[in-house]
Amino acid sequence: MTVHPSLQPYIDAWTHSIEAISELVTPLVEGEWNRATACPGWSVRDVVSHVIGIECEMLGDPRPIHSLPRDLYHVTDELTRYMEVQVDVRRCHTGPEMTAELEYTIIRRSRQLRNEGRDPGTKVRGPLGGAEITLEHCLRLRAFDVWVHEQDLRRALRQPGNLDSPGALVARDLLLEGLPKVVAKDAGAPPNTAVVIDVHGPVEFMRTVRVDGEGRASVSGSPSLGPAVTLTLDWETYALLACGRVKPAAVADRIKTEGDQRLAEAILRNFSTTP
């Protein structure tokens, strides 16, 4: 085996999620491909197109030469414009064409990953054309992104599942890394305060975000005896909020807040950490 041990968990998580996507969409009839998802302006077809397009770029395929329509309201900046090209170029594809390309892309990408022999610290091109990142971080981001989009598709198609899959655990760890910025910088938690996040459901965890005397925040697994805020919510709601799929008001009945209500509202208002 040529794959480095630190890369294998991300490859396994990616494989689990992308194969789940393939199983979800293969039996769809044409009309189901047009169902709206929580991603602004994107249908089921569009989400699958996005997944295919990014994996093709990871394979080194050239980007399509394609001009976007001017009336796409959800294309608001360079990042969304970059992502939209791979999506819009496939909007005329039929369901069978989509599933065939997805299956072929999975085969090609799986072969590439099986033969991956580079060091985890090797610098590679980022998934969205940005600055170079390490190979390990790139594979971690792909495992995260594909799991999030698997969940987008499951909600749109009303087929819940895999909330505790390997990809879900990758997502948990990556999303937790965004909490210090959310609490200290975005929500403005004062120095020397603590915020507890208590999550239950398929993935359970409790984390404390501590803001030190200089306003710097960190996450730990140790409890706090006197937190300024405690947020209790289920794992799916946590992921929806952290991935920007819903506004706090839409899931208010699934969140219990204790302590400083103004700070709690500010944290929830800034909870999204993904583009």
TrEMBL record:
Keywords: Isomerase. SUPFAM superfamilies: DinB/YfiT-like putative metalloenzymes. Residues 15-154 form the Mycothiol-dependent maleylpyruvate isomerase metal-binding domain. Residues 170-265 form the MDMPI C-terminal domain. It comes from the Bacteria. It holds the Pfam family MDMPI_N. InterPro entries: DinB/YfiT-like (IPR034660), Maleyloyr_isom (IPR017517), MDMPI_C-term_domain (IPR010872), MDMPI_metal-binding (IPR024344). GO terms for molecular function: isomerase activity; metal ion binding. This is Maleylpyruvate isomerase family mycothiol-dependent enzyme. It comes from Streptomyces xinghaiensis. The lineage of its organism: Bacteria, Bacillati, Actinomycetota, Actinomycetes, Kitasatosporales.
